[in-house]
């Protein structure tokens, strides 16, 4: 069964969501960032969150990755409760995240940055790493093989040994995506994956995101301001404003909702899915 077949099968059966984000309330010094936000993400689904700046999109990601702890609500990844867990513990459960602003080591090569994404798969200490014998050697070689597969998947071979700081912006964004994939996540959080990209780079990133969903079967939550991209890629979309959800549905349902059109798109910028 292909990943696409699995997604279609999952949509026709009663199944436990991969992610449950239920009635979450998050506030800071009297300012409510999230106010009763609820959504689920199913197996193999690309779920998008849209809204204006300050709507609470990044706050959702920070709750999911353990940076913020909400005052109310439930956040479950499969059977695991995420609230109260530290970011590294959530990463070990299989939640990986990219960032709106590139967070790479510019002086390291593409391969080195991707290898950093394998840190969860290093079951040995510093001394064993220095000795590079036995288990450490075998594990290091296995990790390098996994990284080379990501290089091929994201078509990074021409730049694999170049320092990231010398690469075009769009390639750096692709490397950051690769680093997240290197951890072998079970859920991928994409924070504005095409922010700052030109049209050609955006189209390339969209293709890789679709490949991740369709070939790897990896569920994703995506925050993005590019409405055309969201409407083309997302299976479902949640629209939020001032920390409160306005509408959750398919791209067509969201794009034709009068409240969404009026509040975010404007009649003259209406997007036809």
TrEMBL record:
<dbReference type="GO" id="GO:0005524">
    <property type="term" value="F:ATP binding"/>
</dbReference>
<dbReference type="Pfam" id="PF12399">
    <property type="entry name" value="BCA_ABC_TP_C"/>
</dbReference>
<dbReference type="InterPro" id="IPR027417">
    <property type="entry name" value="P-loop_NTPase"/>
</dbReference>
<feature type="domain" description="ABC transporter">
    <location>
        <begin position="19"/>
        <end position="267"/>
    </location>
</feature>
<dbReference type="InterPro" id="IPR032823">
    <property type="entry name" value="BCA_ABC_TP_C"/>
</dbReference>
<keyword id="KW-0813">Transport</keyword>
<dbReference type="InterPro" id="IPR003593">
    <property type="entry name" value="AAA+_ATPase"/>
</dbReference>
<keyword id="KW-0067">ATP-binding</keyword>
<protein>
    <submittedName>
        <fullName>ABC transporter ATP-binding protein</fullName>
    </submittedName>
</protein>
<dbReference type="Pfam" id="PF00005">
    <property type="entry name" value="ABC_tran"/>
</dbReference>
<dbReference type="GO" id="GO:0016887">
    <property type="term" value="F:ATP hydrolysis activity"/>
</dbReference>
<dbReference type="InterPro" id="IPR003439">
    <property type="entry name" value="ABC_transporter-like_ATP-bd"/>
</dbReference>
<dbReference type="GO" id="GO:0005886">
    <property type="term" value="C:plasma membrane"/>
</dbReference>
<dbReference type="InterPro" id="IPR051120">
    <property type="entry name" value="ABC_AA/LPS_Transport"/>
</dbReference>
<keyword id="KW-0547">Nucleotide-binding</keyword>
